[in-house]
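Protein 1 of 2
SEQ + STRUCT:
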Amino acid sequence: MEINGFVKTSFEQVVVQKKIKWGIIGCGNIARKFASDLTLVEGAELFAVASRSIEKAQKFAKKYQATVAYGSYDELLLDTTVDIVYIATPHISHAEWSIKAMQYHKHVLCEKPLALNKKETKAIIKTSQQTNRFFMEGLWTRFNPSFIAVKKYIDSGKLGKISNINADFSFLAAKPIESRVFDLNLGGGALLDIGIYPAFIAYALLGIPRKIKATSTFHTITHCDIETSMVFEYENAQADLHCSFTINNTKDVCIKGAKGTLYLKSPWHAAQQYTLVTNQHKEVFKLPTAGFGFTYEIIECHRCIQNQRIESKRWSHQYSLELISLLDETRAQIGLIYPQEKA
């Protein structure tokens, strides 16, 4: 850990006995960043990519030097060379392809949120247990060096009892109405897309709240939530959480304790530093990520696979289940139901 402007750029690697061959399902923006970070991790090899368009898959494979490109997801799952699959499809299909991949004997890292709801999450976890395949939700913030340092400091008791967490994740979604972020049929809306981050940090630092209060503003045409505010109430603390597609307003996360205040620097879901303020004394800790920051969850996947674990201790199945349950409760509060849940 480096203090007051001195930058640390190295990161821990995991020695693997042989290359772990990755497949990527879905070739969108998040997959491009992930593929770029794979090149930074020792023992990782991007072997196969799949899109519903073979042309898109081939273009992606060429750019990121994947060995094979497929024009369907099933073709990739049938490839016995692939060890683990990163699922970067729209939210609505996360559960389907996570389950299929494990049934095809693949380990799985699925982009957040891992499913639409608690019911789907339970089905994913059950499949992991039945197939003995590793599964993890790709909540990369959990493995971010700054977040880990902040959590370690809080867990040590040095910050004292936490009284408040204030976390916002907002950006102006200047996208066409047809975009997946606005499409309820694809699990669209601010809450699942970006509201999961504020909910995560409250849950990770304070646990399950005793009460949730939530309100939302909805898109006048697609009816997805475009702005949601949440209050997680705890016995002696409160988390004020917010997400929005209507404003560029994301700011530092503020964590107030009895002995000081911690700030995770915005964009805090991929924080490069944090600040500790105690008795008017300010220290800035710079911990820049390697690549875009997906490197750390990739390394965690390798560690778990090497040790024949089906889940990560740092971000377990139970943690994912409890987090999606909090999002389910929030949706119940705001009255948001996805079309697939009405069937």
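Protein 2 of 2
SEQ + STRUCT:
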Amino acid sequence: MTNSNVKRYVRFSTSEGTWYGLREGDTIHQLEGDLFENPRQTGRTFNVSEVKLGVPLDESKVHKVFGVAGAYNNPEGYQRVMPHPRWFTKLPSALGAHEADVEWPPHATNLNFEGELVLIIGKKGRHISVEDAPDYIFGVTIGNDWSENTWFGERQRTEEPSRLICKSVDGWASLYTDIVTGLDYSDLQIEIRMNREPVARGRTSSMVSSPAELIHYISHFVTVQPGDVIYTGTVNPPSFPGTRRPMQPGDVIEVEIENIGTLRNPVVAMKGRGKSFELPAPAAAS
């Protein structure tokens, strides 16, 4: 039976323009007004096959993209406590669409997938209690927090790209087409597949900090605003034994979350890298 409280919001384009829409099966009802302030149906409808579905938010109006590292317990290990979740940020320009290419820099040595549940903030707030936090979540979607994990540590300092680059290359914050509201996301299965083969699997119930606890924590320090995006972390263990390896051009990564859908992105070689990114050769001894 379909839950009538569950709704799916998309952002779609035609030759006439770009709008938000309410998706019901293969039909999209065009909306007008602010997505987070009771948008109205215009009465116009489109078939999904007639439009292009993109990132489900207007990237130019996204203020912040947050992420959390080490956010899941291993179901076969002890249950951890995380007083201070390990937060990082990604630039809004890193947001990428379902089916969009993800660029692999040729000097990357450890590009990785990180499929996860994503929270979309629906209203402004600070110092939000755990009890009130669910009211600030407009909906959820699927994300892939692409990361060059060697660069993240900045161990070689200026001899390699920085932590900012390792998380915020254009397209390295993939989002699924639909933002789903009214869904119980407390115990959903997440499965990650590389070239159609399962490589990682877990459940949202294994989060160290719940979505409400994450919002409670970050809002103590930073005001959350409508359209803010929170990547809640990838499953633990991060992959099945023998399947984890750096990405390379030609790979296709899928992230499926129960009752939401499947996000899919191919990996392609990045263009335009010049010699200016290489270290200069040492000067010859005189």
